[in-house]
Amino acid sequence: MQTSRFEQALRTATRVAVMTGAGMSAESGVPTFRAKDGIWVKFNPAELANINAFMANPQRVWEWYEHRRTIVGEAKPNAGHLALASMERYVERIDIITQNVDGLHQRAGSTRVNELHGSLLKHRCLDCGADYELGDDEHGVPHCLLCGGLIRPGVVWFGEELPQDVWARSEDAAQNCDLFLTIGTSAVVYPAAQMPMIAKEHGAFVVEINPDGTDFTPFADLSIRGKAGEELPKLLKMFAERT
Ligand code: OAD
Questions:
Q1: Has this prediction a pTM greater than 0.90?
Q2: Mutation to probe ligand 1, out of 64, 160, 189 (largest number of atoms < 8 A from CB)
Q3: Same domain, yes or no, for 143 and 238?
Q4: Which domain does 123 fall in, by range?
């Protein structure tokens, strides 16, 4: 029953929205947050990913982000990222809503990427908000060229609001898609975790792709237990074969 509704959704979907989380990049070698070897198991978010931590010890927080930038710099988009980018050939519009800050969807070639939690690859002044272009060989916390303020990573920290324009575009995508995919996220961090529910309430067929169950699994129209890098190429093939 669900499978045939899924096949129908695949055949007829013109707008697809995709929400991704850390599991999307796991096969690229970027660690997730909550797995046994995940980032938040080794590091406490309260000590690193918030403004108070940065103000108390900018250098320490900066080094942690430098470490994550190095991992991401060495990573390559995996078969899942590439399949999502290729799907754009077969679907009128695909909006990606990502919680990831690694830029791998863009590197894979996806054209509409909404970074709900910002980007590891962008930086701005804590005081005046001006963007800062970080040099490849730059180490240590830089200062703003305009006002001398501290430069901070362009990610959303705990306790901060999501970028309003990105949220509005993501909400629009969730409300107006026929098919919504939620991939590689434990769906516990709000408000991002609202997205699949918004899509469902607006009538989209919602598919979850994850090797494990999540808080959202009971609400998914279909739950595919598998890895993004293996399941998305299969989905791409189905899109390519639809007439
Ligand atoms: P989590 O680490 O909470 O969840 C990763 C999910 O990916 C889990 O449900 C895994 O089962 C799944 N997973 C692992 N390998 C996978 C694979 N190969 N294919 C598909 N799924 C796989 O990461 P997020 O849900 O992204 O926020 O975490 C959400 C937010 O929590 C992050 O954006 C970050 C963090 O705190 C901020 O920093 C603001």
A1: yes
A2: 189
A3: no
A4: 31-74+119-155
